[in-house]
Structure formats: C-alpha cells, structure tokens
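Practice problem: predict the structure.
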Amino acid sequence: MTGATQMGFFAPLRVRRLRLMLLVELGASVGVWILVLAAQWILTEAGESATTVSAVQFAISVPFFLFALPIGAIAEYTSHRRLLVGISLILLIASAVLVVLDILGQVGVAVLMGSVFVAGAGLAVVAIVWQALLPHLVSRDMMTVVPAIDGAVFNGARAIGPLIGGAILAGLGSTWAFASVGVLFAGCAVIAAWQVPTTAGTGATRSPVGKAVSGGIRFIRHSRWTRRLLVRLTIFGIPASCLWALLPLVAHDRLRASTFEFGVMSGAIGVGAVVGTIVLMPLRAKMSWNRFVALGSGAYAVVLAGMAFATRLDVILVLMVVVGAAWVGVQSTWMIAAHSVVPPWIKARIIAFIMLTFQGSQAVGAIVWGILADLIGLVPAVATAAVLMIVAAVGVLRRGIFPSEGIAPDPAVFEAVALPEAGFGDRQVVIETTYVVAPENRSHFFDDIEELRRSRLRLGALRCTVMQAAQHPDTYVEYSTFSAWADYILHETERLTVPEMRLRERVAANLKSAPVTRVLVVPEGTNSR
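Answer:
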C-alpha cells in the first residue's frame, strides 16, 4: 500500500480553524524546544558529562512513555478544549516559576531536568489531544495529507525554537529565554479557548482509564499490523535518538560552536523538516510506506556518519537540513499509516501507543548514547548509531509494516440485528455461538475461525475460545467473554468495520446452516472471574 493521494498538500490549510489550531501546536512546540536548547547548552557549557547532557533528551521524551496511554484514553471522552487550555496554563505557571528561580540563581541540573520533564508532559498532552482533535477539524479525505502538515509544523518548531532560543540565550541570557516560553504558552491557552470545538472529545461514553488502556493493549496484542508498526518505530527510534542526545556535545567539543551557532544547527533540522515535508510529498505518493521509510532511514544513517566525522560547520548545517527532512518523512509516514488503517473507536489510544513507543525509544536511546559516549568516546558512539540506522533501513525493506491486516477505519454497513435490551448491568456476559461446518470446508473454517477469534479480541472480547463438540465432530462452539453487555453491543455495532464483516461472511460460507447464538450471563452476586 502506498501513501498516494489526490489531495493537494495545501488544501487542508483552507480550513480556517485548522490554521488557527496549528498555531497552538506550533506555539507549544516552539516553547518546549526553546527550553530544551537552553537546558542542553547550559549543561554543556558547564562541563557536564555526556550522560547528563543526553539526559535532557530523556527528560523531554519519558513523559510520553509514562503518560501517553492514560492521556490517549482520557482524550476519547474529555473535552479537548478543557485539556488544551488546562495544560497551557500549567505550562505557563511552570515557566513563571522557572524565571523566578533563575533570577534567584537557583537553576541547577535538578531544576533544569524537572522543568524539561514538565514541558515534556505538557507536549505529550498537546500532541495526543491534537491527534484526537484532527478529525473534528477536517474531513476524512484530508487526513491523507494532514499528518504530513502536522509533522511539518511540529518539526518546524525545531527550526523556530532553537533559532529563537539561541538568539535570546546568547543576547539576553537564560531568564529572558525562560520568560519567552511562558509568553508562548499563554498564547496557546487563548487560541485553544477560542477555537477548539465544544463538542470535541465529549461525545464518547466515559470509560475507566484502566479499562481503556487494557482495551488498547488487547487490540495491539491481536493486531499483527499494529505490532509490526510499533517494532519498526522502535528500531528506527533508538539510533535516531543519538542525534538529539549528542548534538550539543558535537557542536561544543568538535566544532567549537557558539551559543547562537548551536541554535542555528538545531534550527537547520527544523528547516529541513518543513522543506522536506513539501518536497517529499510527490515521492511519498509514488512509493510504498516501507520503501519511503527505508529511504528516510538511509539518509538518516548518512547524516549520523557525517556528524561523527565532519569538522566543518557548513557541512554539518547541510547534514542537519537533510536529517530534518528524513526525520519528518519517517515520522509522518507512521502517522499516515495509522490514520489510514486504525478504526476510529480505538485510534486515539493507538496514536498514544505510537507516541509512547517512539518517545520511549528516544528516552532509552538518549541515556544509552550518553553512557556510550562517556565509555568509548563521542565519535565511536555516533558511528555506532549510524551502523544501527543502516540495519533499520534494511530491516524495514525485508520486514516492514503490512499493507493492512483485517483492520480498517471503514464502518460496516449491515442490517440491524435485534439485540435484547437486557439490564445485565456490569455483569460479564458470554456469547455462545454454535457452528455446524460442512466437512469439505473444515480446513478453511479452521483458518477463518482463528482469524475471527483475533477479531473478537481486537473489538473488545476479554477471552475467546473455540471448542469441538465431542459427539458431533462437525459442530464447533465459540465462547466469547465480554466484561459487560454494553461492550458486546459496541462489538456488534460501532466497532464493526468492513474487514470484520467480510471475515464473518467467510466464516458463514463454510457452514451447513446459519450459526446459532446464545447469551450467557454471570449470575448476580457471584465472582465474575
């Protein structure tokens, strides 16, 4: 499957609300990257170890790993306006506290790391809620392009943030750099309160966070497509994190760059991201997802090799532009794939898992590369990352993500099934389905029923078991357990997609007669387990 689309890149930007909401993402991201650059450079100039400097990347990434799942679950039923305004105000307050501490001379390693962690948590909320909000801002056909625009804006912040941060840090000092972050968060709060639709995030049924998270994990466990995507994310993300973790040390120790020059180097990555998003769109449309990701990974490997051995600033600047294009190209491809394949009812949680996995690999990788640089040296550490990125590029060609596998966002169209309106409350229900298989179709039935079992588990069943009747070898009975009757109703209606319905039709084609279904309920007052 390719990312081909007839939608023009700039078409979604005609939507006024989308343009204004992009300013929220841009403002929050710029503020965070100003803070990250300031923290990295302050620690680098203070002579801290590679492990300490790389820990800034860990601090900005680990909140995604810790909070992405609950945020993704909460974003499905909580007002997106309230979430975005609330987190912007929290980040504004945190920036004000940092300014006061800096004036008092109390900003050390612990304060900087804590501030970056809080900023990372805020960015996690903005990024995940933003992904959940997108379908409320644009039509579905635009979603083939919007993730690329989103990637350009998010990574464009990497150009604007470091440039502004480097200039302010060099010319006015750290206090003004931290203050500028607070101003940006204040602007985000105002725009979000003004432009986020009141209905966004409020239509879904409220579900306990733990239950929602476990549902997302169950979906991934029984979706080969999603598992493979997360594996490829990780294999790319770990060597990719070397750039963000060790670039300050390359700039300071090998290039002898000034504060502003380091800002320009970091900003060049964002410039490449923005330019690359536009330039690479025609190429993405002609290539499969896997080939496009492999190309981006290969370019990233070349940049890491150059970063390890080049000693001229102009060469590094060119490489940073290239790596920015590669970075946004690969990242946006993951998101385009997810938006194209994952059904709407689980999409916010899967997007959260994607961010969790990628940022988790960034967090772990940052610490690994910092420790490795301290142990074997800066150049060997970066060169090792380049080799691993080559391995990632080859791997995605050999075992990349699948075109699709039994899941799709298209809701099924079918005749309404008469489901009893029983008041079973929160009791578990077991759906017993009996199949009488035509002997000549038995082998096909085995394949289809196993796929149907995975489908049941993806759509919300806690357990699904198929057993053969001892007295009637052509009769098979499926027992699917749901935590409550409401979950079974969702399984049969809102969550049912075209591939799932076609699978059921394939199963039915193997039978002598229509399957017979019976509902079993755990008695009241007994242990549901």
